[in-house]
Design a protein that fits this description.
By secondary structure, the chain is α/β, with parallel strands linked by helices. Helices cover 41% and strands 21% of the residues.
Length: 340
């Protein structure tokens, strides 16, 4: 047991002297009555004693209530959440413009920003991938920080040309699995479903992405794919602007031929199917993606109280009010008895 405001306990020093004064005053009043009235009824003196006792006890309890007594740990509320890793493709093909002056990277970022609103309350992480994969923001409930990381990636910062989706899946799976036993802030009751969402045009210069997706599902990870780009029309990939000519060259192969890129939905559908998830196009499927995520079984966890105690001042406050009511009833009943 402890008091949150122990300085108010000093008010209790008033009780002993006031009690002594009341007892002394009642004793003197009794002697005076007996001196002048040998047959005086001392019942009204007992009434004063009872009233004084009730008022002093009320003051005592009110003082304790103001000092805010606390004991017992606070109950740990149960909450639910998903662990979601967002994987953004940052290869140079994401610089392509399927629509005039609207890069795939810009489109993907806008889609992620809108999805973050639906993931409010869940833990979300951010991963960038191209030839290599790296986590730029670990799983967190602070989506404001994640938004800052996402805003920082621009077309000018992209330097990775290839794409290896397998690496992204493996990196995300390791990170999602390593966080399942993280009990620094919470105590998990049981594992919920973990989610990886790939935002990419589907171009993959590696192999075994589907096998990596199957392995991820064995560890409880569901993989969803969001396609960025156009499946009908292939477009060139612009490279960083030439400062001398102020023109933006396009990517070419070893033979000097223009490299074209298009959304590979077939690849992404296969990865999503192997990952026990679904495929969505960025233009039309984000609402459905948010709905599907909402239906997943979330992880239940208890929010630890960090050693905080439960407030108990209410008990003392109620006790003081009861004593005051008793004092008022006692006075009322006695007044009716002595009324002629």
């Amino acid at each position: 047991m402890r008091f949150a405001r122990p300085e108010f306990l000093h008010l209790l020093w008033i009780v002993p002297p006031v009690t002594l004064l009341l007892l002394f005053g009642l004793q003197q009043k009794r002697k005076a009555l007996l001196r002048f009235y040998r047959n005086a009824d001392p019942s009204h003196l007992r009434r004063h004693k009872v009233q004084a006792g009730l008022l002093l006890l009320s003051y005592f309890l009110l003082t304790l209530a103001i000092a805010r007594p606390q004991w017992g740990a606070k109950p740990e509320p149960v909450a639910e959440r998903l662990d979601v890793m967002l994987a953004l493709d940052i290869s140079t093909s994401m610089l392509a413009e399927d629509e005039e002056s609207f890069r795939r990277l810009t489109h993907a970022k806008e889609v992620i920003f809108s999805l973050l609103d639906a993931l409010e309350g869940d833990r979300v992480g951010l991963l960038y991938f191209a030839e290599a994969s790296f986590v730029v923001c670990p799983l967190t409930s602070d989506t404001a920080t994640l938004r800052e990381f996402l805003e920082a990636i621009t077309a000018e910062t992209l330097t990775h040309s290839g794409t290896r989706i397998r690496n992204a899946i493996e990196t995300a799976t390791v990170r999602l699995s390593s966080n399942q036993n993280d009990t620094a802030a919470i105590g998990a009751d049981f594992e919920g479903q973990k989610v990886l969402i790939l935002f990419t045009d589907g171009e993959d210069h590696g192999e075994e992405a589907i096998e990596a997706a199957k392995t991820a599902t064995q560890k409880g990870v569901h993989i969803y794919c969001v396609g960025i780009g156009n499946t009908v029309q292939s477009v060139p990939i612009p490279l960083p602007r030439d400062t001398a000519t102020e023109t933006a060259p396009y990517k070419r192969d070893a033979d000097g031929q223009l490299v074209l890129t298009a959304l590979d939905e077939t690849q992404l559908r296969e990865i999503a199917e192997a990952g026990n998830g679904s495929y969505y196009h960025a233009n039309t499927g984000i609402v459905q993606l948010a709905a599907d995520l909402a239906r997943l079984e979330k992880q239940k966890f208890r929010i630890r109280s960090d050693g905080e105690y439960e407030e108990r001042f209410q008990l003392f406050l109620v006790g003081a009010l009861i004593l005051l009511i008793c004092e008022l009833l006692h006075f009322t009943i006695w007044s009716r008895k002595v009324r002629p």
